[in-house]
Design the sequence.
């Protein structure tokens, strides 16, 4: 189970303000490409509330296959079942171009689960497309903060995330940081995948 604090920022100005504030704590920035896969009838997304994702890091220096399921987001805290496996970037690119190639991968717990538990024929899997994300990672007051600029075809979403064993305390710390520095925010209501599927940015509240 992955548990994260997710706070949404209204615009690029707020994102830049927070980036400047956190700059002394910056450790690295990742350029991510996220691609999603399902059957043509969206068996994973609609029947199982799941998402099969390939994530490429930093111009294909790394690729990770993920299966996320049963997301719940409430009051800025996200809880989701997550399983991840590294994948050779060249093989991952081949699968992205021709998703039937997932069926040729052996010894993958994730793909075995997709087949056996979710009943998906990997030969039928298609690409849904995806989005890009610029993720700046910071180590601040014992927390790992991830400041995201997510580039969808229909707009840009700004968010700060923090995975924590004590999400309520982490959320209070983040809220205090943002409030003290006059940075507007709201609780994220849906996942990036849900935004991608909806085809529009959610209203900032």
Sequence:
């Amino acid at each position: 189970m992955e548990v994260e604090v997710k706070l949404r920022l209204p615009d690029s100005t707020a994102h830049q303000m927070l980036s400047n504030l956190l700059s002394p704590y910056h450790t690295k920035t990742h350029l991510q490409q996220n691609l999603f896969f399902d059957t043509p009838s969206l068996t994973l997304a609609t029947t199982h509330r799941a998402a099969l994702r390939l994530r490429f890091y930093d111009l294909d220096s790394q690729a990770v296959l993920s299966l996320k399921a049963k997301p719940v987001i409430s009051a800025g805290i996200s809880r989701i079942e997550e399983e991840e496996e590294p994948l050779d970037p060249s093989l991952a690119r081949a699968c992205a171009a021709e998703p039937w190639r997932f069926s040729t991968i052996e010894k993958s717990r994730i793909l075995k689960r997709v087949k056996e538990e979710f009943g998906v024929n990997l030969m039928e899997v298609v690409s849904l497309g995806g989005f890009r994300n610029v993720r700046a990672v910071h180590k601040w007051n014992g927390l790992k903060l991830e400041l995201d600029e997510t580039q969808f075809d229909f707009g840009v979403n700004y968010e700060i995330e923090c995975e924590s064993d004590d999400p309520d305390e982490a959320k209070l710390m983040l809220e205090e940081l943002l409030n003290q520095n006059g940075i507007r925010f709201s609780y994220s209501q849906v996942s990036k995948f849900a935004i991608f599927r909806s085809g529009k940015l959610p209203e900032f509240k």
Residues 142 and 161 are 14 Å apart (CA to CA). The longest helix spans residues 167-180. The mean pLDDT is 97.
